[in-house]
Design brief:
34% of the residues lie in helices and 26% in strands. By secondary structure, the protein is of the alpha+beta class. The longest helix has 24 residues. It is globular, with a radius of gyration of 21 Å. Bound molecules: flavin-adenine dinucleotide.
Amino acid sequence: MLCDLADQIGEGNAVQFYKGCKLAVEQIGELAELGSGKAEYVWQSSLYYASTEQDVPKLKKEYELLNRHLFEVEYLEPEQISARFPFHKPGAIVTHGDASVNPFRFVHGLIDAAVNRFELAVYEQTDLVNHSSEPNSGAHILQTSAGHEVLAKHVIYAVGYEPEELRGKLVKSVMNRTYALVTNPQPELYEAFSPYLFWETARPYFYMRFSEDKRIIAGGGDEQTKELLTSESQLKKEAAKVLSCIQALFPSIEASIDYAWHATFALSCDGLPFIGADPNWSGVYYCLGYGGNGTVYSMMGAHILHHLITGRDHLLASIVALDRPSLLNV
Ligand SMILES: Cc1cc2nc3c(=O)[nH]c(=O)nc-3n(C[C@H](O)[C@H](O)[C@H](O)COP(=O)(O)OP(=O)(O)OC[C@H]3O[C@@H](n4cnc5c(N)ncnc54)[C@H](O)[C@@H]3O)c2cc1C
């Protein structure tokens, strides 16, 4: 929440960061067009509802802060929620200018565009197993598991989570196991509610949205472990809990689970991404999104790193830098 981030890094910085996220959502839309426009990028509004009465004061505080800084936001009282949706909740905010995308199509569209426009060469299934640099020239030498070498002036680690070189030293991440599912198509619910992304104030939280083929994609049930499940029956049990959250919101629904999976979901210790230069190794950078907004943060990271590598500062660089002072307070 913006109000939590404001407590952590100050209101001015928190608002800058939120504006940066909003811009990144727009930039993802522009990139989605590059990849022949098949990435199913759709503008959305988010319904963020209070899971319990106790969460209402904080939700109101969040609304006031967002509104004061001119983010497009509405506050819904219980009767307004019941008028728009088939469920009752003690309060909610609706934010506008969010978006959904099909990540698989998006990524493949981008890779195709980069191959066609810039003659990018893609080497799949290629592990980088060693990284060193020449003391005199500063050139970086990366070795692959197949025994090849890559020479580079700059290296960006965009490996999802903290790479071996830094492991545990900076990010101090919390690893969770999370569950997600896709239902059979729900054309009636899709007609009525597909402009919304849904999530809640409870932690762990439940979230859902619609896919372009009118299915519900939902997730939640996070548990604090990075161990993966060992059996299908365990996954079915956890997915059934997520399905029951959908049924609690939409009691008339007759939905079945067509696909279910689980994943490791990592949060950094201060909830922010890690984007920037390695403080101790010239020419080395990191773009580690972390958390539930990792895609958005990665887009922001692309611009920040482009600025840094071309010798310019970026407004958000100090907020997400690897040696940021706010980390010391965590
Ligand atoms: C269930 C779930 C829901 C999410 N929902 C959202 C959401 O709604 N919005 C949002 O913005 N974000 C969301 N996220 C977060 C988002 O998915 C991630 O932050 C994002 O996908 C990370 O992308 P990435 O390219 O940085 O890393 P990754 O997609 O993890 O890719 C890193 C790549 O680096 C490769 N790699 C690692 N080490 C090496 C090595 N040594 N050599 C070669 N290759 C290597 C890996 O194989 C991998 O292919 C969600 C995440 C999860 C798990």
